[in-house]
Design brief:
The protein is an alpha/beta fold. The protein has two domains: 172 residues, Aspartate Aminotransferase, domain 1, CATH 3.90.1150.10; 246 residues, Aspartate Aminotransferase, domain 2. It is built from 15 helices and 14 strands. It has a seven-stranded mixed β-sheet, sandwiched between helices. β1 and β2 form a beta hairpin. The longest helix is centred in the C-terminal third of the chain and has 24 residues. The chain is globular and about 55 Å long. It binds ligand KE4. The site of ligand KE4 has 21 residues, from α4 and α5. Ligand KE4 binds next to α4 and α5.
Length: 429
């Protein structure tokens, strides 16, 4: 078994400073029990904790590290940028370079604005939608997580779901009632809700592939139906691609599913591990954003040159060929897990979209958050810890997705499967 004395000591002291000892709830192991391991360094696909234990990392900072930890190209770009200074609060060429590259890869983002977190991106996209439609309501899907802005903390996924928080105290009822919620993949329910209340809905916001209730792909007809529904009721369609961006396809959900949103949010991968997110889309909508228009949104460190440099280096490396290579390895890992579970007679379903993947201890496919909650979360907890003890780091919650990076080689995938096979045997008892 691995030792975690230093992690335990660091967490003991951190609990005296940070709520729950962490700076983001999902890191606290609330969904799996026990004490978090404390990261000390990352090397490619490996994570080393404060006690020197090494793990094959499939969380990758919750998605940003599509090239793996500390990729040389990103470190070189960061070094070049930081020797010129760390922040200016002024236009720089770095933001132009990354903005132009994103628009080249994602032509549906005619205009975009950089911010520093996915939460800022989604709250700003909704503000634009509310301003442009002069409506206050939004429609989201049960188990989807769009960051912690007040309007989204209604039946949210990720840490809200992991910790079993009903919604969140501190969100005014008057605001929460503006957020309509309906089950993911249920077109009829969404149609009924929009027929009743569509006149007050500014936007339908959706994770094109859900990564915050566990991994849940859309039924083929779901996203096209949302496009039609938004158009029929004069609402906008927002694809929250903070997690799926540059993960499920080189040009995102529009390429994978053939549906164009009105607005898109990005994050994670576009910062290469530094704080970067963005919102954007149709020019006629985005030109309402200050100072071009009256919709106010701002940020001291938006477009920070170090973050722009890291994101630019990451996307430059992430060619279509590399994306396809990472996707192929992800497919092999998922298929390997299915075979292990079948051989061991464990009820199990797993799937992937590009380099994003996930699994549930449940035989039937998971189509929405209610399904996800019927999976065997107790077995997940045991499996998580048995895998951790064998050097595999998975998301510490059954309601999160997993990821793959360019740094995971074929041998790493094979090694991870061997370790997880052994872990499942131990977890089953
Ligand atoms: P941030 O504010 O955490 O940068 O992004 C919020 C967000 C928005 N939209 C989607 C689809 C997201 O997945 C996220 C953040 N994802 C979580 C992981 N499920 C971040 C991890 C955390 O909360 O610490």
């Amino acid at each position: 078994m691995t030792r975690h004395d230093k992690s335990q000591e660091i967490m003991r002291r951190s609990r005296e400073i940070f709520p729950g000892g962490v700076n983001s709830p999902v890191r606290a192991f609330g969904g799996v029990g026990g004490t978090p391991v404390v990261a000390a360094r990352g090397e490619g696909c490996r994570l080393i904790d404060a006690d020197g234990n090494a793990y094959l990392d499939f969380v990758l900072s919750w998605g940003p590290l599509v090239l793996g930890h500390a990729p040389p190209a990103v470190l070189d770009a960061l070094h070049e940028a930081m020797t010129a200074g760390t922040s200016f609060g002024m236009p720089t060429e770095w933001e132009l370079r990354l903005g132009a590259l994103i628009r080249e890869r994602l032509p549906h983002m005619e205009r975009l604005r950089f911010v520093s977190s996915g939460t800022e991106a989604t709250m700003s996209a909704v503000r634009v939608a509310r301003a442009q439609t002069r409506r206050d309501g939004i429609l989201k899907f049960d188990g989807c997580y769009h960051g912690h802005a007040d309007s989204f903390l209604v039946k949210a996924g990720s840490g809200v779901a992991t910790l079993g928080l009903p919604n969140s105290p501190g969100v005014p009822a008057a605001l929460a009632e503006l957020t309509l919620v309906t089950p993911y993949n249920d077109i009829a329910a969404a149609e009924r809700l929009m027929a009743e209340q569509g006149g007050r809905v500014a936007a339908i916001i959706v994770e094109p592939v859900v990564g915050n209730a566990g991994f849940i792909p859309p039924d083929p007809a779901f996203l096209p139906a949302l496009r039609r529904l938004a158009d029929a009721h004069g609402a906008l369609l927002i694809f929250d691609e903070v997690m799926t961006g540059f993960r499920i396809a080189p040009a995102g959900a529009p390429e994978r599913f053939g549906v164009n949103p009105d607005l898109t949010t990005l994050g994670k991968v576009i910062g290469g591990g530094l704080p970067v997110a963005a919102y954007g889309g149709r020019a006629d909508l985005m030109d309402a954003v200050a100072p071009a228009g009256p919709v106010y949104q701002a940020g001291t460190l938006s477009g920070n040159p170090l973050a722009m440099a890291a994101g630019h280096a990451t996307l430059r490396m992430l060619t279509r060929e590399l994306h396809a290579k990472i996707e192929a390895r992800t497919a092999r890992l998922v298929q390997g897990l299915r075979e292990i579970a079948a051989r061991r007679g464990v009820p199990f379903s797993a799937d992937h979209a590009g380099s994003m993947w996930g699994f549930f201890f449940r035989a039937e496919p998971v189509r929405n958050f209610a399904d996800a909650r019927t999976s065997d979360t107790e077995l997940f907890k045991r499996f998580f810890h048995e895998a951790l003890a064998r050097g595999v780091y998975l998301a510490p919650s059954p309601f999160e997705a997993a990821f793959m990076s360019a740094a995971h080689g074929d041998d790493d995938v094979a090694e991870a499967l061997n370790r997880m096979d052994d872990a499942l045997g131990a977890a089953r008892g």
